[in-house]
Please model this.
Amino acid sequence: LLVVSLNPVKGFDHAWLLDYKTNAFVFQERRRGRGQHGGNRSGRGHKGERQRGTRPRLGFEGGQTPFYLAIPKYGFNEGHSRRPQYQPLSLKRLQYLIDLGRVDPTQPIDLTQLVNARGVTIQPLKRDYGVQLVDEGSDIFAAKINIEVQRASEGAIAAVERNGGVITTSFYDPISIEILIRPVPFFMRGQPIPKRMLPGEDMVPYYTSAENRGYLADPDKIQQARLALAQKYGYVLPDISRDELYHMLAMRKDVRQVFFGLSPGWVVNMAERKILKPTDEKLLKYYTS
Amino acid sequence: MALTSQLRAALVHIHAGSSAAGLRSASSSSPQQQNPALIESTEEFVFVERLIAPSRIPDPPKHAGPAPSGWTPPAETPPPLPYMIRRSRMHNIPVYTDLTHGNRKMTLVRKVEGDIWALEKDVKQFLQELTGKDMPTQVNEVTMTLKIKGHFDQELKSWLSSKGF
Model:
């Protein structure tokens, strides 16, 4: 074992790795007392169930109703596998990703962009329905972005809009999420891009309300909600229509669209770098419905 | 998946049509108007390229001083000290905390180059001023790392970034 160091060989004041010698005392075995005269209690205590090894099962409380039976059952985790989960993304982490150049603020920020930047990890098989924006770090957030998430807290919406950005919450069904996270393996399959499904009955109120900036909400109501939020949180709402990046900030996906710029029904040929579009009437009618 | 089978049937039809068209034009005189079942285009491939993940970690853009998230870029020239602490792959300062056995707190400084004992001396002096106590440290000359007892990652990170590492 050769140790490289700047110290000279002679005249050093600290021990080297090669200097340690083994000692007989280091390797002495520690055994419990065994036998008639040197045996003693062998670490088992004095009489009783402890020494005799006849203690009752774990959880037994001497006859009193044990804790795990006295407390009544309650369905805390009932239906846990049917509950949608959203991976949290704090504004602090989003700002960190933008500062390191992993996420491009001059393009619309999508779930695909976040996963490509390794900002979040989504597991669709664990009932993940996307990402939720959390307002930790809303005081240091300073980036003008067009972001699309699946859920957002009110503070996060306020922080994004205060800096002149646009935030939208939209719904993706599990198949669309799987495609959105890993687009390249999906394109290699050769299947046409499916159309995004609409949210279920219980999620429709969330995505049609303007307070949550839902993608199914009325644009006029969203503008009113923006003004109301600015009043509530005490900031001046910047006018985006005068912005040079207004075209990028106003980009939004269609209700049935999964990717920006690509319609459902198209097949992507990665090898020849082409896109195949169907022309059959029935197919077009289905995909545009 | 009736749709994909329809599309596949259309593809087969196109290929059959293109190969038989030559024969047909030679045999019959009336040209048959065949609408193509698929349109190929390369214009929208730009959007597909945007979806492909980059394979290398991008270089961070130039910031004048600390960024809003608290990240500071390393100095242009390394500081004139006998040791050097490189940045990690993700351009961060390599100071990490460790917790073993539920209660053993340690701070680890990795990626040290040069005179590690000078760094240990400086770190001990810094922590002496910070806490007033002499913190036990361990130097590993093979892996060129420095372990300190206790959690001091935030203090050490700000101290090292102020030095210019």
Observations:
- Chain A touches chain B through 47 residues (CB under 8 Å).
- Chain A has two domains: 29-71, 85-261.
- Chain A has a mean pLDDT of 90.
- DSSP finds eleven helices and seven strands in chain A.
